[in-house]
Amino acid sequence: MMNLTIISEWLSHYIAAEVAFYAELIVIAVIYLSVFALLGLFLVWLERRVAGFFQLRLGPNRVGPMGLFQTLADALKLVSKELTGTSKADKFLYKLAPYFVIITALMAIAVLPFSGELQAFDVNIGLFFISSVSSISVIGIFLAGWASNNKYSLIGGMRTGIQMISYELSVGMVVVTMATLAGTLQLSELVALQKDGWFIFTGHVPAFIAFAIFIIAGTAESNRTPFDLVEAESELGAGYHTEYSGMNFAYYFLAEFVNMFIISAVAVVIFFGGWLSPFGITDNIPYVGVFWFLFKTMAVVFLMMWFRWTFPRLRIDQLLTLEWKYLIPINMVNIVLMALLVWLGLTF
Amino acid sequence: MSYIGDIINGSKTLLTGMSITGNYFFKNLFTRKDVITQLYPDNMNELKMFDRFKGEVIMFHDENNQHKCDACTNCEIICPNGSIEIVWERVADPETGKNKKVLLNHIYHLEMCTMCGLCIEVCPADAIGWGQDFHHVTRDRADLTKVLNKPGSSIMPGVKEKK
Ligand code: SF4
Ligand code: SF4
Hints:
The complex is a heterodimer of chains A (348) and B (163). Helix content of chain A is 68%, strand content 0%. Chain A is mainly alpha-helical. Chain A folds into 2 domains: 1-80, no CATH class; 89-344, no CATH class. With 163 residues, chain B is of the alpha+beta class. Chain B folds into 2 domains: 1-37; 56-155, Alpha-Beta Plaits (2-Layer Sandwich), CATH 3.30.70. Chain B has helices spanning 2-30, 74-78, 118-122, and strands at 56-59, 66-67, 84-92, 99-109, 128-131, 145-147, 154-155. Chain B is elongated. The chains are: A mainly alpha (348), B alpha+beta (163). Chain A binds chain B through residues 50, 52-58, 61, 306-307, 309-311, 326, 330, and chain B through 7, 14, 17-18, 20-22, 24-25, 28-29, 32, 34-37, 39. One iron/sulfur cluster (SF4) is lined by residues 57, 78-79, 81, 83-84, 113-119 of chain B.
């Protein structure tokens, strides 16, 4: 499954095989880390640019071509900033919290199939792995809210608990719906099964409902407007990361964007055929899948940005009403509907 | 059933909102016609500020170098920052022989002005208004103290003196 072993094969010409194995792991980790950082920077730039266009502005346009280096400049600024904190903070937890968020985002990105050849870790419970790993990031946000010793952080952190734990349920149920259709949780197999038609078409009505729920719950999971009660600038300062500065803040900031990418990537894998090209036009050429995967993911990311710059923020009771009175019941009916369709062979 | 009706209505209103913002986005993406961002230092020469932009207080003069200010000092009195000083004198009217206020200098301290617009609102003769120039950078504070009536200007005939 893992054609990146060429790295260790190539390395084993020079060093012992066992060493080459670990060297390979390190090389891949470094590649993923840099991809992760670049991705975060690119998405922040995209968000600003898209926001600008939505509001009849231009967005960043001075630093580098089309303002592409603006976020790089911002990152440099953040790196050079002093790491401050409150004196009464729980120092250990306070320092630990950002790593929960950033590392879980990194772990989730490891299982994403960028193309048929490019997937670092193809575990057979891929979808389950992603949803369980990303639910750990709640702990990071909780810890940040608690350890900062600041009322706004605490309110933000508690809201996270309510919001992310509620909406995780919806995401999980959508995954169950699609797993009913596919019969597997392995990401590479999920993509392979869609060779003859993306699941959003083969699963028609329930798949479409599932996609609608997934995109709503996914937006809530990544704490983006209209579900950004966790940060809610106008009410809570900056929510759980009010007391963070410099790189610690940047971790949260990057993780939010990378989480958005992961949610979109999962949507692409379970609904839009992953790295498969439309009508199989380039499926035989290796590595072109990367283009299609990123293209589709960016389309879903754009959809989420469109939400952000259109909808007003929900109140906390509206947020819970939406989840518990609408999404969950619809989701339950939807699972039964999907099971019926699969049972009766009514899927394409 | 209102439950299903709510869902349909909700989705419909959300889509309406998205179509409006989407319209803005794609129009901007392809034409850039409605973009309000000014690429400032690049378009320094052709940049025309908007009519309602508050750059500084100016006094309007017509082609005969005549203004409408009859030195009533309303603006001086109302300015919360004391940015305006009216210097005037009494001159006998050649026709009626009555003494009349005549404006000598309308002194405006841009460095103290907060652009609140009260002076413009209170002026009974509409003699002053907003100018759009915003290039006020200078190295000397004194440069920001301006005399609004142009040298050698006089009052327009027909502007009534207020009691
Ligand atoms: S705009 Fe306001 S502050 Fe400025 S001169 Fe007029 S009254 Fe004074
Ligand atoms: S500018 Fe207007 S308010 Fe001020 S002294 Fe002249 S007429 Fe009166």
